[in-house]
Amino acid sequence: MGIESVLIMLVVGAVAGWLASLIVKGIGFRLLGNMALGIVGAFVAGLILPRLGLSIGGGFVGAIIHATIGAVILLFLIRIIKRA
């Protein structure tokens, strides 16, 4: 994996984490937290969405949407665990 791929992954993770924290009110992280949330969210969405039969287009915008969906799922799980 080249340096360009790593930088794109970090940017997609940061944008996806930021968008997910806007969608799920009350839970927000700083830049590094948003990057981690977006990257892990992309992994989670990569596991869940194909099993549901959902496919999102490729490219930069598709990667952001994909990672945002996974990050929102993660934030909802975090919220449920905190309430328990």
Topology, please?
Layout: H1 3-23, H2 31-52, H3 59-83
Helix pairs in contact: 1-2, 1-3, 2-3
- The helix tally amounts to 3
The proportion of strand residues reads under 5%
What is the typical, i.e. mean, pLDDT? 88
Number of domains: 1
Structural features:
84 residues, mainly alpha, 81% helix, 0% strand
Fold and architecture overview:
The protein has one domain. The chain is built from three helices and no strands. It has helices at 3-23, 31-52, 59-83. Helix 1 crosses helix 2 and helix 1 (3-23) crosses helix 3 (59-83). It starts with a helix and ends with a helix.
Structure summary:
81% of the residues lie in helices and 0% in strands. The radius of gyration is 13 Å and the shape is globular.
